[in-house]
Amino acid sequence: MNTQKTVIEELISKINKKENMLDDSLENDNFEIFSKTLEERLELLKQLEPFKNELAVKNVLEKILKKDSERSKSIEEKMKKIKGDQFNVQVSKKAMKKGYLKIEESLSRHKINRSG
User: Fold this and answer.
1) What count of other Cβ atoms lies within 10 Å of the Cβ of residue 16?
2) Which of 31, 38, 61, 113 is the most exposed place for a label (fewest CB within 10 A)?
3) Half-sphere exposure of 97 toward its Cβ, with a 13 Å CA cutoff?
């Protein structure tokens, strides 16, 4: 029984470290590490499954669900910002192309005026 408690404590400790890594990677917009850490956390959670009726495990799972809900909201906000930034980039790109076309036209007119 004591070894079971030790195994649970070790897994919970590892999961808590992954939780901190998830928060850090999300804060730093490092979605590659975020995704990898989610996968690693899933593997640890699978190892906890045989102990799902233990109170400590239930508490950890509730905490994870709450944090994941907050993370999901944060990711949605970041996605909205990315979409807005992408739209602004496209508008700027079009404006630059139009600006360059006008510059090219004025340069070609200027050459024609010199020779003509």
Assistant:
1) 14
2) 113
3) 6
The pTM for the full model equals 0.70
DSSP 1: -
What percentage of the chain exceeds 90 in pLDDT? Answer: 61
The DSSP result for 27-92, as a single string, is HTT-HHHHHHHHHHHHHHHHHHGGGTTSHHHHHHHHHHHHHHHHHHHHHHHHHHHHHHHHHHHHHH
Average pLDDT, the chain: 87
Mean pLDDT throughout 62-88? 92
User: Do residues 45 and 15 lie in contact, with contact meaning Cβ atoms separated by under 8 Å?
Assistant: yes
Amino acid at 82: I
